[in-house]
């Protein structure tokens, strides 16, 4: 099987690379952080001394990095050393503009490329149940699919260069807004003397039904697995939700789309982060809303 290079072995990249090893791939990895390197070694990943060394002889390169500037820096560094005809897959969540630029860099060097951000969090990364939303040519997608299937369970081709990132930020803008909407409803219900369970029983089978309510309920009780039952430990950290909302707002500004609720959601999560709660699960936003209410 084609050898794989994996750059960025953090909370997501580490377990994703480990799943490729479990699937029988030879994976050579690189990361700047000693802790990520140690964990990856224990999972059977061969560690290279640099990103350039990692990509030597690899037919597929995967990057899983914090933001667009990191992806562009790493792709600029490795592309001159990547084998002709190799496939580069970026799984990071980054701005659409940087994703499009990364595709152009790859094309200039004769490499195929896919932007393939993920949904499913660290739990999905460990269990190989991630959803991948991919952007790029039909041929690049066909080449990437078998690799992505070893790290996830649903792989969607969303369109051309950058379409994966576009799908990711549109989805997460819905999520950020809907979590605030559900939290506002529970906050109002509390003031009106309505129990959490009563609102859940009605809204979960009525027109208010949505994932933020039925799978990730922001109050403890109705959905036992939701972070509300575990002191709002993430889950999906509020800082990451804010990152994605900001990406959606950058894209809205650049493209001229009107997203007033997305803009307001970004403001609300900014205030939550500034109050020191960036590390809490994003459903903890309900506590922020309660604090805004009249005592
Ligand atoms: P992380 O900070 O745990 O991992 C990023 C890793 O990249 C770190 O280990 C860091 O040392 C490494 N890195 C940075 N610059 C590098 C470079 N130049 N060369 C090599 N390594 C470098 O972050 P994460 O949680 O794994 O997230 C990675 C990406 O996945 C982000 O874009 C994030 O938005 C996205 N994402 C995260 C989650 C989640 O729940 N954590 C869910 C979906 C998507």
Automatic annotation (TrEMBL):
> Broadest EC class?
oxidoreductase
Its pathway, per UniProt, is: Amino-acid degradation; L-valine degradation
Q: Which Pfam families match?
A: NAD_binding_11, NAD_binding_2
Q: Which terms under GO biological process does the entry name?
A: L-valine catabolic process
**Keyword Phosphoprotein assigned:** no
Reported EC number(s) for this entry are 1.1.1.31
Instruction: List UniProt keywords, sorted A-Z.
Output: Branched-chain amino acid catabolism, NAD, Oxidoreductase
* Annotated ranges, domain 3-hydroxyisobutyrate dehydrogenase-like NAD-binding: 162-288
Q: Tell me the active site.
A: 168
Q: Which residues form the 6-phosphogluconate dehydrogenase NADP-binding domain?
A: 4-159
Q: Which domain of life is it from?
A: Bacteria
Reaction equation(s) it catalyzes: 3-hydroxy-2-methylpropanoate + NAD(+) = 2-methyl-3-oxopropanoate + NADH + H(+)
PANTHER family in alphabetical order: 3-HYDROXYISOBUTYRATE DEHYDROGENASE, MITOCHONDRIAL, 3-HYDROXYISOBUTYRATE DEHYDROGENASE-RELATED
Name used for this protein in its record: 3-hydroxyisobutyrate dehydrogenase
Instruction: Tell me what organism the protein belongs to.
Output: Rhodopseudomonas pseudopalustris
